[in-house]
Amino acid sequence: MQQLSRPARRALLVLHVAVSVSWLGLTLGLLTLSVTGYTGSPEMAAVAYRAMKVFGDWLVIPIALLTLVSGLVLSLGTAWGLARHRWVYLKFWLTLLTVLLSVFSLRPGINHLAAEAAAGTPTPDISLVVAPAVATATYLFLTAISVLKPWGLTKRGSRLREAQSAEARAKRARRSGKEGAGVR
């Protein structure tokens, strides 16, 4: 993929950070509501689960997908690459996993509890406390590795860097050979 221009990269980076932080905040909100539903009265549980359904229906999937896509485009359109640095590679796979879990596990669980709440029989479910708690911990971890950028290059990244270094040395040698011709 062609490298993004500086204005495009900056705009995409702002978008990616904004939606990633939104995903973290949304998950914290879902965690708060799920704890309220699990520990509160049946009336409070019904309200909490219905509120979770609104977030699940309108926000979870769009924010999750926008986070994944913006991160993917950023990694492919910049020197970071998708498989050059271990932290980028891990961040991609964890994001993909959490998107899939949001679609196929979290939302169906929320919908089930919201349906029970609408029927007047909300049954607290610990899995809807655990899921947002694990997701929140995962997003905090992803945020930390985005800031700290640990672990260095992947094998592929090392090979690419070596190839780029060799190419740069060859260019310098050609230039210095032309500049130094006849000077001996």
How does the SSE layout of this entry go?
Layout: H1 6-39, H2 42-76, H3 86-118, H4 127-148, H5 155-179
Task: Briefly characterize the structure.
It is built from five helices and no strands.
- Structural category is mainly alpha
- Domains, number: 2
Report the radius of gyration as a whole number of Å: 24 Å
Instruction: Supply the number of helical segments.
Output: 5
User: Any low-confidence stretches, pLDDT <50, length ≥5?
Assistant: none
The overall pLDDT, averaged over residues, is 93
Question: What gross morphology would you assign?
Answer: elongated
Sketch the topology as an H/E string, one letter per element.
HHHHH
What separation lies between the terminal Cα atoms? 44 Å
Number of strands: 0
Can you give the helix content as a percent range?
A: over 70%
- Main sheet, how many strands, which sense, barrel? none
Strand content: under 5%
Oligomer: single chain
Keywords, please?
transmembrane, membrane, 2 domains
Describe this structure in words.
- This is DUF2269 domain-containing protein.
- It comes from Streptomyces inhibens.
- The chain crosses the membrane at residues 12-38, 58-76, 88-106, 126-148.
- Keywords: Membrane, Transmembrane, Transmembrane helix.
- Residues 164-184 are annotated as: Disordered.
- This protein has helices at 6-39, 42-76, 86-118, 127-148, 155-179.
- The protein has 184 residues and is an all-alpha fold.
- The protein folds into two domains: 6-152, no CATH class; 153-183.
- α1 runs antiparallel to α2 (42-76), α1 runs antiparallel to α4 and α3 runs antiparallel to α4.
- The longest helix has 35 residues, at 42-76.
- The radius of gyration is 24 Å and the shape is elongated.
- The model has no long low-confidence stretch (mean pLDDT 93).
